């Protein structure tokens, strides 16, 4: 009976680690400047040197989030309020 419980726990831990390790492989950073976006300055969403993958407006916070994807797999999200950059998120694979 105890052997079955041990096997179940080992299977659960193996599954948990298998799911969580790839999620931790990405690194997220918050630089002050990336590409043509600088925190605190005016932002032109079409001046970035890569492909825009999407944009959305958060009505609660009254902010726009612009998403860009680079050839190396890096994803850049620029958060603006009134076209002034509030934050920059970089997600590197």
From TrEMBL:
<keyword id="KW-0732">Signal</keyword>
<protein>
    <recommendedName>
        <fullName>DUF2845 domain-containing protein</fullName>
    </recommendedName>
</protein>
<feature type="signal peptide">
    <location>
        <begin position="1"/>
        <end position="25"/>
    </location>
</feature>
């Amino acid at each position: 009976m105890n052997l079955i419980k041990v096997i179940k726990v080992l299977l659960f831990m193996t599954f948990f680690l298998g799911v969580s390790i790839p999620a931790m492989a990405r690194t997220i950073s918050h630089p002050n400047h990336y590409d043509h976006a600088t925190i605190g300055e005016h932002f032109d969403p079409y001046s970035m040197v890569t492909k825009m993958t999407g944009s959305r407006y958060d009505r609660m916070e009254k902010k726009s989030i612009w998403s860009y994807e680079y050839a190396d797999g890096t994803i850049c999200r620029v958060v603006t309020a009134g076209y002034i950059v509030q934050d920059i998120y970089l997600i590197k694979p």
